[in-house]
Amino acid sequence: MKTTSISVVLLCLLTAVLAGCGGSDGMKADLARLEDEAQRAAVVEELVAAGAASGPTLVKALANPATRKAASDALIRIGPAVGPLVVKARGSKDVHVKIAAMSVLDAIETQQTAVTEAKRSPGLSWASLDGPFGNSILCLNEDSDGCLLAGMANAGVRRSEDAGATWLEAAGILSEYTVWDIASLDGGIYAATNGHGIYKSTDCGATWESSGDGLANKFVHAVQPVGAVVYAGTKAGVYQSVTGGRSWSLLSDGMGDADVRSLGAASGALYAGTADGDIYRLPPGRTAWVAVGVDLAEAPILCVAPLGSWVYAGSEDGLVFRSTDSGETWTTLADGLDGQAVTSLVEIGSAMFAGTAGGGVCRLGADNSWSPAVDGLLNTTVTSMLVSNDNILTGTDGGGVFVAAAR
Which of 5, 147, 285, 328 measures 20 to 30 Å from 271, CA to CA? Predict the structure, then answer.
């Protein structure tokens, strides 16, 4: 009881002190400026720069629908320093303020977890898996039985049943094709090819058969399972199969740019990145897409990595974008990437890594900048990445696969 009372007193004192910073007139002026869309961005930067002293103003702004989103983002950027005020706002009678405060607290907690993980996690040290060599490894996949597969440029699929110690070539005509993506579902492995549709294997890639009835466009860049449904991203939209790949139907209502380059899924939602730099979201149980990132980039979106309501996307022009609200708003995270195409994004242990075409692998820091993580990575043209248990596997352009322990 004594500890609780002390905490309450401290919280009240902190609130009173912060409320006095700048006076009520200053708060009213800032709130008015926040309502002005033309001034909002500049005001937010001022408030963030002021740190905890801006807490009362930003919490007050949560009650206004016009300024709620900007205030939430600013509070998240300031971080733990405004935590006590946001905790108090969580108890508001206004349900919208309550929900906004809870979202802010969740985001701050996620940030703190990432910072803690970054401090205790050692740097990556890469080692070669001794193959497969000769061609770009455009994708990596591991099924539930531990079967490891690598999709190659103009060379089909290589497979390994011993964690990458040895690699075997897939049999049949698939060995001549470019394989952009591989996904597994219910014992089936699906390979997306460049101009030849989708092929399916049920024996760790030893044999493949065409799986394309109804797939009108054969240029498939991405394949993604969501629940029991398999989706295929093609140059003419997204197709779905509810029959394990035996038949496909077009599902592109609401999608303006139909040239899909990447797919990603989380919490039942499917995200699609397109050649025009747009991102679309297919909500759970829906059949029409929602545009959540129109003209996000000036180049194709090569990878999408949803993590619950957080979504990361990487573009061919060397940018990474992050949304903390299922794609409604986006922040650009480009510092440190040097304009290298972002080919892949993976998350492990609350740390985010980007594979780039020339800069190797980069890690996102707590300050939202990227730093190289290339010790031992002999080929820095990274074309794909995969998380396997506590390891990250990296496919390169002609240099085989590298592995690093992320913890």
Answer: 147
Question: What percentage of the chain carries pLDDT values higher than 70?
Answer: 91
d(CA 252, CA 234): 11
Please give the model's pTM, rounded to 2 decimal places.
Answer: 0.74
E strands of 112-187, at which residues?
127-128, 137-142, 148-152, 157-160, 168-169, 179-185
Locus of tokens 């961005």: 41
Check whether residue 51 and residue 131 sit in a common domain. Answer: no
DSSP state of 170: P
Residues 6+ apart with CB under 8 A from 64: 31, 34, 35
CATH label of the domain that carries residue 133: 2.130.10.10
Q: What is the dihedral of CA 209, 161, 137, 276, to 10 degrees?
A: 60
Domain that holds residue 80: 2-120
State whether 174 and 103 are in the same domain. no
Q: Percent helix, strand, coil in the chain (nearest 5)?
A: 25, 35, 40
Task: Please give the Cα distance from 215 to 149 (Å, whole number).
Answer: 23
Distance (Å, whole) CA 29 – CA 249 = 55
Whether the pLDDT of residue 263 is over 70: the answer is yes
SS3 label, residue 2: helix
pLDDT per residue as tens digits for the range 252-261: 999 988 999 9
For residue range 169-215, list pLDDT tens digits in order.
877 778 889 999 999 999 899 999 999 999 999 998 889 999 978 99
100 lies in the same domain as 243: no
> How many structural domains are present in the chain?
2
Q: Are residues 210 and 96 in the same domain?
A: no
In angstroms, the Cα distances linking 26 to 23, 142, 264, 378 are 5, 57, 45, 56
Q: In terms of domains, do 57 and 177 share one?
A: no
CA angle, residues 326, 234, 279, in degrees to nearest 5: 20
Q: Which residue is listed with tokens 């440190």?
A: 336
The confidence score (pLDDT) of residue 257 equals: 83
